[in-house]
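Researcher: Last one for today. Full complex below.
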Amino acid sequence: MPDLKLYVAGGCEEHGRNCFLVRFADRAVLFDCGVLHDGDLVLDPLLDARMVRDIGWAFISHSHAGHAGAVGFLESLGFSGTYVMTGRTYSQLGSVPSRCRIIDGEGEPLVQERLDAGLTFRWGWSGHCAGSAWYQVAMDGGTVLFTGDYSERSPVYPCTPIRSLEADLAIIDCAGGVEEQHSYDEQVALLLGVVGANLQADITMVFPVPPQGRGIELMALIHDRFPDAGLFASEALVWQAASSLALADVRIRSSKEAWNYKGSGHGCCVFLSDPQFRPKVIDFSTRLVERCSVILTGTVEKDGPYADLLKTGRAVFCRYPTHQRLSDVHALAEQNRFSTVLLADAPAGAFDHVLGSGRYAVCQSGTGMVL
Ligand SMILES: [Zn+2]
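Model: Here's the assembly. Have a good evening.
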């Protein structure tokens, strides 16, 4: 019988603020520490100084705010343990203390490593953005698998498939929810169809994307299908594209040059690293919106400016899947031995129809379970 306690500080029955505290028999570890954007509010995980006192290790899956945006908050509570993450994640976050174990410095995916007395872990690439990783952590009392954001389909980012692993508790990304009407390939075909039509009509398209992640994947897919399309991007994305094998030979220009672009009668694609229209680029972007087609490819905050654009028909929504959906979680559960699967990072009620039978569970933020 496992001897595990889970406390969900955020990230279950809500999208964002991923933060899971697991207590083994005599050790405590944390998986991710993200924030939740709710309108103008930025919510930290539901943690306090007493809870973090004995946490020895904080495993960080990747640098997105919903997974790592509350590291400063964790420090302010007096966390004195060690962070665990990849080198890319560490450099993207910038402000993580040096108490950090960089897993890909010497270690390799799937190789079991020791942390301290009795605590071991292995990791793999999770295919979600540059440097993203999943973890399996074990000690007396049980084994926990944490995927962070996970995708086996990325055309750009490496993924170490999770296969034949055991876990008493598997905390699995299911942010893609239950949207089952289109497969990944169909959604990509739909998106590329929209891009092709705009290019043909000589329309400039604006893609707001996170600073890390799907922007690079979208550029690779678009370049592969439409090699003559002009590609422009925010500086951080241009830099990332240059270090990505899939785009190393592709010319990607600064987004500032896009507005004077005269292609060969084709439109172009402009990638802005600002997924939710934050104030620093809003003037710039608002001006653009009048002349461009805005294409939204990820979750739209319900009261944010993009929701307004959608309502008024000035943007189109065409999802590019970077998360697992429930059908992907089913497949993962079939290929491994998980006793309990916590469905993470999706809004309340999304999975009610699969709860109560079998191994699937949700656990509201601020509550926990004993395994
Ligand atoms: Zn993410």
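The first strand starts at residue 5 and ends at 10. Residues 279-284 have pLDDT under 50 and may be disordered.
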